[in-house]
Protein backbone atom coordinates (compact mmCIF):
# COMPACT_ATOMS: atom_id res chain seq x y z
CA UNK A 1 0.00 0.00 0.00
CA UNK A 2 2.77 2.46 0.89
CA UNK A 3 4.65 1.67 -2.35
CA UNK A 4 1.52 2.54 -4.35
CA UNK A 5 1.10 5.85 -2.52
CA UNK A 6 4.81 6.60 -2.97
CA UNK A 7 4.52 5.82 -6.71
CA UNK A 8 1.48 8.07 -7.11
CA UNK A 9 3.28 10.85 -5.21
CA UNK A 10 6.34 10.61 -7.49
CA UNK A 11 4.22 10.67 -10.66
CA UNK A 12 2.11 13.61 -9.45
CA UNK A 13 5.15 15.62 -8.35
CA UNK A 14 6.87 15.06 -11.71
CA UNK A 15 3.80 16.40 -13.53
CA UNK A 16 3.55 19.40 -11.20
CA UNK A 17 7.26 20.17 -11.53
CA UNK A 18 7.13 20.39 -15.33
CA UNK A 19 3.84 22.27 -15.67
CA UNK A 20 5.44 25.69 -16.15
CA UNK A 21 8.04 24.79 -18.78
CA UNK A 22 7.89 26.12 -22.30
CA UNK A 23 10.12 24.75 -25.04
CA UNK A 24 11.42 27.46 -27.37
CA UNK A 25 13.18 26.59 -30.61
CA UNK A 26 16.03 29.08 -31.13
CA UNK A 27 15.17 29.54 -34.82
CA UNK A 28 11.54 30.37 -34.04
CA UNK A 29 12.21 33.61 -32.16
CA UNK A 30 11.29 36.80 -34.01
CA UNK A 31 14.58 38.53 -34.78
CA UNK A 32 12.72 41.35 -36.56
CA UNK A 33 10.84 42.46 -33.46
CA UNK A 34 10.50 46.25 -33.38
CA UNK A 35 11.17 46.69 -37.11
CA UNK A 36 9.44 49.70 -38.68
CA UNK A 37 9.07 50.81 -42.32
CA UNK A 38 8.72 54.15 -44.01
CA UNK A 39 5.34 54.41 -45.78
CA UNK A 40 5.07 56.96 -48.60
CA UNK A 41 1.88 55.61 -50.17
CA UNK A 42 -0.41 58.38 -48.86
CA UNK A 43 1.83 61.22 -49.98
CA UNK A 44 3.29 62.10 -46.60
CA UNK A 45 6.01 60.07 -44.94
CA UNK A 46 4.81 57.89 -42.09
CA UNK A 47 6.53 55.18 -40.04
CA UNK A 48 4.44 52.01 -39.75
CA UNK A 49 4.87 48.71 -37.95
CA UNK A 50 5.66 45.62 -40.01
CA UNK A 51 4.72 41.96 -40.24
CA UNK A 52 7.08 39.00 -40.52
CA UNK A 53 5.83 35.85 -42.22
CA UNK A 54 7.66 32.50 -42.23
CA UNK A 55 7.20 29.32 -44.22
CA UNK A 56 8.97 26.00 -43.91
CA UNK A 57 8.80 23.84 -47.02
CA UNK A 58 10.89 20.76 -47.79
CA UNK A 59 13.45 21.62 -45.12
CA UNK A 60 13.92 25.21 -46.27
CA UNK A 61 12.87 28.16 -44.12
CA UNK A 62 11.77 31.28 -45.93
CA UNK A 63 10.80 34.59 -44.33
CA UNK A 64 9.72 38.03 -45.51
CA UNK A 65 8.83 41.41 -44.01
CA UNK A 66 5.99 43.63 -45.23
CA UNK A 67 3.97 46.69 -44.23
CA UNK A 68 0.81 44.60 -44.10
CA UNK A 69 0.28 40.94 -43.39
CA UNK A 70 -1.05 40.47 -46.92
CA UNK A 71 2.15 41.91 -48.46
CA UNK A 72 4.37 39.77 -46.23
CA UNK A 73 2.38 36.60 -47.04
CA UNK A 74 2.63 37.27 -50.79
CA UNK A 75 6.38 37.93 -50.55
CA UNK A 76 7.17 34.79 -48.54
CA UNK A 77 5.13 32.66 -50.92
CA UNK A 78 6.93 34.19 -53.91
CA UNK A 79 10.34 33.57 -52.31
CA UNK A 80 9.38 29.97 -51.63
CA UNK A 81 8.33 29.45 -55.26
CA UNK A 82 11.63 30.99 -56.43
CA UNK A 83 13.69 28.50 -54.38
CA UNK A 84 12.09 25.31 -55.65
CA UNK A 85 11.78 23.76 -59.09
CA UNK A 86 8.70 21.77 -58.09
CA UNK A 87 6.60 23.88 -55.75
CA UNK A 88 5.46 22.40 -52.46
CA UNK A 89 4.76 25.84 -50.97
CA UNK A 90 1.36 25.89 -49.30
CA UNK A 91 -0.23 29.16 -48.28
CA UNK A 92 -1.93 27.60 -45.25
CA UNK A 93 1.50 26.72 -43.77
CA UNK A 94 2.55 30.40 -43.51
CA UNK A 95 2.78 31.86 -40.01
CA UNK A 96 2.82 35.62 -39.50
CA UNK A 97 3.59 37.84 -36.52
CA UNK A 98 3.41 41.57 -36.06
CA UNK A 99 6.76 43.17 -35.22
Q: Which stretches are low in confidence, meaning pLDDT under 50 for 5 or more residues running?
A: none
Q: What is the N-to-C order of secondary-structure elements (H for helix, E for strand)? A: HEEEEHE
Tally of contiguous helical segments: 2
SS-derived structural category: alpha+beta
Q: Helical residue percent?
A: 25-40%
Please report the total strand number as a whole number.
5
Largest sheet entry: 3 strands, antiparallel
Oligomer: single chain
Q: Strand portion, in percent?
A: 25-35%
Distance between the termini: 56 Å
As a whole number of angstroms, the C-alpha radius of gyration is 22 Å
Query: What best-fitting shape do the alpha-carbon axes yield?
Result: elongated
Overall pLDDT: 78
Amino acid sequence: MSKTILGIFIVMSSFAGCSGLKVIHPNDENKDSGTKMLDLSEGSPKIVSTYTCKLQSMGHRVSAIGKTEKEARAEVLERCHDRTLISFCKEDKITCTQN
